[in-house]
Amino acid sequence: MSKKVKDFGIEKTLKNLGIKDENKGTSTGGKYFASGKTIESYSPVDGNLIAKVKTSGESDYDKVLETAQNAFKEFRLIPAPKRGEIVRQLGQKLRQYKNDLGKLVSYEMGKSLQEGLGEVQEMIDICDFAVGVSRQLHGYTMHSERPGHRMYEQYHPLGIVGIITAFNFPVAVWSWNTALAWICGNVTIWKPSEKTPLCAVACQNIMNEVLKENNLPEGISSVLVADHEIGQKLVDDKRVALISFTGSTRVGRMVSANVAQRFGKSILELGGNNAIIISQDADINMSIIGAVFGAVGTAGQRCTSTRRLIIHESVYDEVKNRLVKAYGQLKIGNPLDESNHVGPLIDTDAVNMYQEAIKKGKKEGAKFIVEGEVLKGKGYESGCYVKPCIAEVKNSYEIVQHETFAPILYLIKYKTLEEAIAIQNDVPQGLSSAIMTQNLREAELFLSHAGSDCGIANVNIGTSGAEIGGAFGGEKETGGGRESGSDVWKYYMRRQTNTINYTASLPLAQGIKFDL
Ligand code: UN1
């Protein structure tokens, strides 16, 4: 461990979270399994090996599934508000571990410490939210068309919920799914990204404390640190009622087809290609902050990252010049050092993709006004640090139509708002979108049926940083799923319609006569 990282107290953080040099990556909350290969987690911050994790093998998989199945039989009988109490306790533990977990997120994934802490805050928020929802799993009561009949609907748990998450939000996305899945009476099996296994081990250690303190059966919350083959088994497994998948559109397309093939349910949270429209009536100061944070926050690796700025021709040069100036002031370096704005990309594969995208963009005609570069030298030894860059492009370029998980920002000029909205919508993805304007007519048009086609549409806010209280997700190639707030809990339950006849006769619906 380098001296620099010692200064940030990583060793203590790992200890507090129960991370050892070698960890067993699969746990049902009681037993640990580790018959698979060993993976090593290197930090993109300094390139150092943080710890090793033994993954689960084929034989572990069935044991985990069986344990989860058994746990479900018990867990579904616990009243929903009591299940909420368990989620409340998880939220309390997360408050206790917030600093450590936030720091581990920052060190293993590379996002800034502030964003790492923000991610843990999202976990705490969703726990609080889910506790409230645990007393509000409401269904409707309808009036029957038949006399002496009562009709209503109720929601029942699904069973096992499989959660497959990406490296960029290595803890929050698990909690969005798990907190809701549990209050709904489901048990969960989490397959985290192989790029951030220690974050998953830490969450599981925290969860295990809650399970133990409440004498709950093992199998309510399992984690499977495993390769994509085991992930595929989970996707194909009939015992898994719902797969919540967060990741690329390419993989999501396969997951969606495979789960549909067996009539399972899925929640898909796939790629975004998010734009901010900056109108002639925008507050330019606010627009610059929103755009820069959206583009370079998490080094451009959020699915909500701002990839495109669609700027009115009358303010185009001003916005462009101020962006160039702002990018000149960005400090790139160790994300645990709070004076830095931008940390590393997740690994050198991501760096290669960043370079490829720049090359491709240039070939298509992109004019770079802030050049990209892979940073070398002191503090950049991991090889994962890149310079955020800006290019003037046409929306039709193939590279602009594609989501590159890196801090590359594209500028596009527009004349009329209708044209800007058409450009904003003219990509295969439909996650997040925003308009910066102080003009009510523009704002409302953007939010109308003729406006943004995305799952998230903001006014005077950037594209990233959604609160957990709203339903999170997007349309088109983003997959159509919704996670976290609002009435998303309904995805985690099956709806049942009940009709009860409390008379001594049996009238048929639709007035059908059938006498014996
Ligand atoms: C993601 O990038 O996968 O809205 C999730 C945001 C965060 C979540 C992003 N609350 O940027």
Automatic annotation (TrEMBL):
UniProt cross-references to Gene3D superfamilies, sorted A to Z: Aldehyde Dehydrogenase, Chain A, domain 1 (3.40.605.10), Aldehyde Dehydrogenase, Chain A, domain 2 (3.40.309.10)
Uppermost EC category: oxidoreductase
Pfam family, one: Aldedh
Protein name: aldehyde dehydrogenase (NAD(+))
Keywords carried by this UniProt record: NAD, Oxidoreductase
Active-site annotation: 269
Presence of the UniProt keyword Methyltransferase in the record: no
CDD domains tied to this protein: ALDH_F7_AASADH (cd07130)
GO molecular function: aldehyde dehydrogenase (NAD+) activity
Aldehyde dehydrogenase domain ranges (all copies): 36-497
Upper taxonomic lineage: Bacteria, Pseudomonadati, Bacteroidota, Flavobacteriia, Flavobacteriales
Annotated InterPro entries: Ald_DH/histidinol_DH (IPR016161), Ald_DH_C (IPR016163), Ald_DH_CS_GLU (IPR029510), Ald_DH_N (IPR016162), Aldehyde_DH_dom (IPR015590), ALDH7A1-like (IPR044638)
The family this protein is said to belong to: Belongs to the aldehyde dehydrogenase family.
Subunit structure: Homotetramer.
EC number of this enzyme: 1.2.1.3
